[in-house]
Input
Amino acid sequence: MVILGDAIFTNQRRQIAELSMKRRLRSGRSSRGCLYRVDKMRSASMDRRVQSVAVLMQAELHRSVSLHELAKSVNLSDSRLRHLFKIETGRSPHEVIKALRMQRAKELCEVTFLSIKEIMDRVGIRDPSHFVRDFEKLYGLSPTRFRATYGNKARNRERRAAVMANK
Output
């Protein structure tokens, strides 16, 4: 069997991407090394308005919430909210909501049998090409490949339930 240099390179790239993704998944960090968990964003020293916006972002993942709506909910201007959010979290509101959506999409890929389009709808993303590109950039695999590789949780849970029901 002859293995071409490109095939070896592609295989090595895939293995490196899988290893780095496993590390990120274990550590709970994104590719930029920033935690995007709302419960972690709530600290005593964080501005309560930024905390409120973070909670609202998490609750409204399924729909597109504008920066103006978020700012209005805490009685700030758009630019002031963007400024405060950047100071408090180190990321813009857009970056955080995008990361929260990707994180939720990853969770849905792991534990449900929803189609990729249904997952996109549940996390409020309308454009499939952007979704696949961003997911792949963050986790190293397309959503379909990610599910094939790491989506055993739902299947295993069903198997355990079936075994328990038979006892």
